[in-house]
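Hi everyone,

Forwarding the result from last night's run.
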Amino acid sequence: MEATLLFIIEVIGTLAFAVSGIRLAARKHFDWFGAYTIGVVTAIGGGTIRDLLLDAPPFWMLSWMYLAVTGLGFIIVMTFKKVLTSDSRSLFMFDAIGLTLFVITGIQKSLAYDYPMWVAIIMGVITGSFGGVLRDVLINEEPLFFRKDIYATACLAGGGMYWIAGALGSPGWVCQLVCAVTILVLRWGALRYGWHLPEMKEV
């Protein structure tokens, strides 16, 4: 049951990240192949790095579903291109959903491989954010990961709340829910109220 739920979460996260990547590629006027490639990199990049670090087979090699879902993301963007590329909130929505779900899958998979919680949190951050880093580098944008905007910090905070909830004896679904709410609230606050970390000042 838990493996099935993890698969469903991973598929939904893959779709959300694929849409966010393809949407940005469309705004940059990439061709169809280039846009699909950006979608694939965004969707599977973080999880691939995680699996390599965990010495596990990359998740997308175990089922054709992930690449097919990325193709579905391409169809969604092409169908609703005008709405998705003109509304900046759509990028936030899909990116936040992908970020949240992938942090959860990164933590869950690491724990399933018997790694300690602190490692699981790091793997959650990598799973959630590194696909976006690769996406931004490939489309020549400053990665969200490195901006003062709360992004990776939201992943860390979500992982920390997962840890606290688990330490208090909460069931797995509660830990996942607390993690998800924390990340979504922090990302929403960053967008709505400009929450950010202090900048490094030049010495």
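The radius of gyration is 16 Å.

Cheers,
N.
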